[in-house]
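Final paragraph of the annual report: two paired records, presented back to back.
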Amino acid sequence: MSHKKRIYTSDLTDEQWELIKPLLPLERDGPGRPLELDLRAVLNGIFYLNRTGCQWVDIPREYPAPSSISYHYNKWKEDGTWRRINQALRTQERVRVSRNPEPTVGSIDNQSVKTTAFPGVRGYDAGKKVNGRKRHIVVDTIGNLLEVVVHPADIQDRDDAKLVLEKLSKQTQASLLKLWANSGYSGKLIDWVKENREITLEIVSRDPGVKGFQLLPRRWVVERTFSWFDRYRRLSKDYERSLASSEAMVYIASIHTMLKRLPPVS
């Protein structure tokens, strides 16, 4: 059944739906009635919330009931569907631009964001003067998201970098040879990455003689990825109660971004 009467800019096109449909768990697990809900409409509702930053109860009536949308969002968060879709689309995007399916070089960085009044873990980033959480991401040289970890903002870059590197898939860990990072990742972390992940961590530093903004070689790629995510208002702050939900919202923004770049299924 269809719940759509109006088209929103965050909605999937027919071509984008054909790309993502094979990656969804469309079969119901266990006994029960067959799934009757329009999963394309469910996805559109989730993308609408992620892009506009609205609350669940304010999702437009053209979509299924907010409770049905949030049910699937949470189910796919808990079973790793969002992460798997992101990995699959990232591989497709790399092949599309004539790259190897798994990257050999990438960039690592983090972003501190404020949290809201909702309960949940948080911390104070004294350097950036932000009380909230950090989004720690690794991207390839195109800017595609390889992995994300969200944690309290009071954890130092050298410590939380290990969390996101350990979360990388086995295939990505095996292929990665080098990561570009800023000076916040210098010190003992360089040796740890080399010994435990066999990856060279190369620090790209600012020129101390230049004042103001600098476009750092290699580093602009991961910064551009964060700018892509800034277009999604749900990520303007961390509105989520759990760290897992915070990570899921980043995966969803990444998925929506890649769907816009991938060509239609032939």
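The closing record of the year follows.
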Amino acid sequence: MVQVELIRADALTDADVARWREMVAANPALVSPYFRPEFTQVAAAISPEAAVAVFHEAGEVVGYFPHQRRGGALQPLAAPMNDYHGVIAYPGRGPGLGEAARLLNGARLNVGSWVGPADGLGQGRTTCQVTMSDGYDAWYAERRREFGKYFKDKERARRSLETDLGPIRVEHKLRDPVLLDHLIQLKRDQYRRTGRHDVFACGWTAELLHALMEVRGQGDFGASMAALWAGDSLCAIEYSLHARGCYHFWFPAYVPELARCSPGILLSLDTMRRGAEDGYDEFDFGFGGESYKKYFCNAERQVSEAVVLRPGLGARLSQSAVGVLNLAGNGRGERLRTSVRRRWAAIEACEVTPADRLKGAAHAARTALTRRFSPA
């Protein structure tokens, strides 16, 4: 029988951290930098109400799950910033999503990209990757053969950017806090333009990016930025996590006025080329959606999205509400709930007080309703 113990991340012993590292190394599903103990140690010191669930079976530690609490809800640690999460365990060991939720006993456990057994809960989602078994040049040649028009257009965009602004210069492994603040401001401007919740308004999320960038002496784990200039103009920046041959593109931003020259895409291409030279063979782009990813990515990974509610009236009412909305036709109820849930999950995770969480909820619901039920 599996039992759970909740501890602070700074209460992890040296033996815990060593076991954690062994689990990550032994389990190919845990390749993402988000599963590294360094990520948990940094994030838990910053994200409010953070904890680590330690799962025991027959006196043996069989898994760890870093998480945070917001009221009665439980979320992966550092949500909504955490792009991959699940129980850190040896392959075939540790609880799945349903058992973990039951043991943690929160009003609900909300996960957006759960890695590992989902116990039949929620829905599947796909993330996309670039894999380079033979290096950057071989990958680019194959992509250019398949999508010649697209990559020729990007080569023309590079020449156009140089003609308009001057020679292109790309720098990598940057850890300048002033540059990071500029990136965060570009993202906040983007959130305002698109009507999305500003995940940096709460403060702790920006602090997390700064703190991760300061990690030193932790082997292959780290966070850094790459940036592209044309002449004297800064055109694009991208913040990434990296570990164990995996380079995770996390927060990209570019100057909107230069969109026609695709500076963000040019930066990603150059970052992959440089990263491959440094030994990275997987570049993770997270969830699909942006059109350029279909031209880049040649691999995918299945994850699960779910809200696991504590059995009882709340779960029954949730399903009843979806049924009513579905009566409107064409299955809109479930799609509407998914859209609203994702927006609310980001708000709930960022904001640490009930007042701040509720402040964004009505706006998120109105936006989702307008988009889902507006005429085609």
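The chain has a mean pLDDT of 90. This concludes the annual technical report; the extension proposal builds directly on these records.
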